[in-house]
């Protein structure tokens, strides 16, 4: 009983206040708690604000990719993250000099690593991305966006309308109505104009006039 009182007096410094040993123990416990919160924050880093389904798909794609510190073929990676439509197009773009990694022209089999800057020029636009995750299988657009940091310039604006008289390829020969519409857009043969409906020598129905 006396021993218990002695231990209590030592811990409380005999005045009921916490002694130096108790003061030393409290920061240690607080430090462990803070360290645990820091570790949890590091695990969640990069996944905050991401839809859980997308995060799960990203994790699955990474699991199917190379191990930590590994690499992926360039043509495979740019196809997997949807920078090109097919892997063969990615390989052709590399061979044609339309793909650069860290400012250098590379081959389709070049080994891409995390942190590499990849530039792909295709269809009149340049994509500039920094590799964030390595995957080998093609994924959806939301998942692909989590695999790189996009530094691409904005795409060029599309023309509001095609130039007058220009027809799309594969539409076949123009009909009479199409020809009249093209002539109208070009300002040829318009109403009251030379050779147009209502012009000299033609009746209102468009047939040659006469007695």
From TrEMBL:
Record-linked SMART domains: S4
The keyword RNA-binding appears for this protein: yes
CDD domains in UniProt: S4 (cd00165)
A single GO molecular function term of this UniProt record: RNA binding
UniProt keyword RNA-binding present: yes
RNA-binding S4 domain boundaries: 72-136
Domain of life: Bacteria
Positions with biased composition (Basic and acidic residues): 1-11
Annotated spans, Disordered: 1-51, 148-211
SUPFAM superfamilies: Alpha-L RNA-binding motif
Keyword vocabulary terms for this entry: RNA-binding
Listed Gly residues bias regions: 187-211
One matching Pfam family: S4
Protein name in UniProt: RNA-binding S4 domain-containing protein
């Amino acid at each position: 009983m006396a021993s218990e009182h002695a231990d209590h007096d030592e811990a409380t410094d005999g005045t009921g206040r916490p002694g130096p040993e108790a003061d030393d123990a409290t920061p240690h416990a607080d430090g462990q708690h803070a360290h645990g919160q820091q570790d949890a924050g590091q695990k969640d880093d990069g996944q905050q604000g991401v839809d859980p389904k997308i995060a799960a798909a990203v994790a699955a794609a990474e699991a199917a990719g190379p191990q930590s510190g590994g690499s992926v073929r360039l043509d495979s990676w740019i196809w997997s993250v949807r920078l090109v439509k097919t892997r063969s197009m990615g390989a052709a773009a590399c061979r044609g000099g339309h793909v650069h990694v860290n400012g250098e022209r590379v081959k389709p089999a070049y080994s891409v690593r995390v942190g590499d800057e990849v530039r792909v020029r295709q269809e009149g636009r340049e994509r500039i991305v920094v590799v964030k995750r390595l995957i080998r299988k093609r994924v959806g657009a939301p998942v692909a966006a989590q695999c790189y940091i996009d530094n691409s310039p904005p795409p060029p604006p599309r023309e509001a309308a095609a130039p007058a008289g220009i027809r799309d390829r594969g539409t076949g020969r123009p009909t009479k109505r199409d020809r009249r519409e093209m002539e109208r857009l070009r300002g040829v043969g318009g109403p009251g104009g030379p050779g147009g409906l209502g012009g000299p020598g033609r009746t209102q129905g468009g047939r040659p006039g006469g007695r």
